[in-house]
Amino acid sequence: MAVVTNGGVDLYYEAKGEPNPADEVEREADTVAFVNPAGYGAWVWGWQHAALSSGFETVVWDLRGTGRSDAPDGPYSAETLAGDLEAVLADHGVSDAHVVGAGLGGMVALEYAHRYGRAATLTLFGTAASGNRVDVDALDSLFAPRDDPAALQASLRNAFAADIDAHEDVADEIVGWRREEDADREGFEAQAAAMCDFDRSDSLYEITTPARVYHGVDDAVVPADAGRDLADGLPRGEFTAVEGGHLCFIEESAAVNDALLADFDARA
After folding, report:
1. pLDDT at position 24
2. How far is Cα 47 from Cα 254, in angstroms, rounded to an integer?
3. Interaxial angle between packed helices 185-197 and 78-92, expressed in degrees from 0 to 180 and rounded to the nearest 10
4. What is the pTM of this model?
């Protein structure tokens, strides 16, 4: 893990993997930077950066309010979190990156692409152009205290479309990661405020970065129609429906990972 300080806030990040020297494709970017959903630690991207790290460098980080990063008082904003991402990538010496975000992380990715010059592509999961498309109650239901394993497992029910209780081994593993890495109540609320207050609905045309919007058809937090509207509003946006819920990139990780690799190589 490395740490960078942005405006007095320490941010922890980790980079793994590297471009495959045997790969003769010259890509626009060989780094993939992930931005977490509200409240979740970097564990949520484990299925993706494990699949990508043999051909790409992957960067995961603890958003302010999460994990080992500092947790200043909220509320936060997508603009502030985009500035944190810029600090991480600049500190690591990344010139261009594929930026992948989910939920709040997708909103941060949109803001980042608008404000900074390092985003080669955007990949967005369960994201809307405006926080008014977010089901606030469903979002709040994703939180649970880190010292309560039963509550942590129960709070996964609105994150997935599948019955999490029927997948005990996976649920137990996720609960273990959440106990170590997720935000506490204050950090979650500060991040949730950034998600609900976000609004780029009238200025999506300014974000010309190539963007692929994936959306779980049974997303309880952000309706799939919001993802379609987001893709329609982006000048270079494309929409792909995915079976699953808000964390569809975990539920359908094999199909999503294949699609990501194909997307990144197609944009080489």
Report:
1. 46
2. 8
3. 110
4. 0.95
| The total number of structural domains that make up the chain | 1
- For the record, the structure tokens of 230 come out as 């987001």
Residue 65's domain comprises 2-266
What residue has token string 């990715």? 109
Residue 25, CA atoms < 13 Å, CB-side half-sphere: 15
106, 110, 94, 128: which is closest to 236 by C-alpha? 110
Angle at 102 between CA 100 and CA 106, to 5 degrees: 70
What's the gap between Cα 259 and its chain centre? Answer: 16
Question: What are the Cα distances from residue 195, in Å, to 109, 133, 137, 142, 176?
Answer: 12, 10, 13, 13, 25
Signed CA dihedral, 42, 47, 48, 53: sign only:
positive
For the chain, how far is it from start to end, CA to CA, in angstroms?
29
Looking up residue 212, the CATH number of its domain turns out to be 3.40.50.1820
Per residue in 169-215, pLDDT tens?
889 999 999 999 999 999 999 999 999 999 999 999 999 999 999 99
**E strands, the chain, where?**
2-6, 9-16, 31-35, 57-61, 97-102, 119-125, 211-216, 237-242
